[in-house]
Amino acid sequence: QLQLVESGGGLVQPGGSLRLSCAAPGFTLDYYAIGWFRQAPGKEREGVSCITSGGSTNYADSVKGRFTISRDNAKRTVNLQMNSLKAEDTAVYYCARVRYCSGFRSPFVWGQGTQVTVSS
Q1: Where do the DSSP E strands lie in 8-72?
Q2: Left, alpha or beta for 73 (phi > 0: left; psi -120 to 50: alpha)?
Q3: Which pairing describes strands 77-82 and 57-59: parallel, antiparallel, or unpaired?
Q4: Model confidence over 69-100: pLDDT tens digits?
Q5: 54: which strand partners?
Q6: Closest by alpha carbon to 42, among 101, 97, 109, 88?
Q7: Are 80 and 91 within 8 A, CB to CB?
Q8: What is the pLDDT of residues 58-73, one digit of tens each?
Q9: Among 40, 83, 86, 108, which residue has the fewest nearby CB atoms (within 10 Å)?
């Protein structure tokens, strides 16, 4: 059964960078559309970025130009490189298998989440 595991969260100062990874022990993610989502305290979970099995990507407007999603086929991970981080990026970040990257629709397998805190 597919399980997703996130890693790479932590505390970073505004303007700093973090790299999140999503892995699926025993599986390759190559054939799946994988999305990154986040949920800040008191807010609804929102889609951040997504990559299709074919490598097409999309991003929420709030992170365009700052975040980059990619696959590392050697490590069998989907990564989210986050640059120029802002306090409003503080949230628990989740990766999920999704049915459609467009609109970040129909996530149906979730990781446990990793905390990202942007603070001075």
Answers
A1: 10-12, 18-23, 33-39, 46-51, 57-59, 67-72
A2: alpha
A3: unpaired
A4: 999 988 889 999 999 999 999 999 999 999 99
A5: none
A6: 88
A7: no
A8: 999 999 999 999 999 8
A9: 108
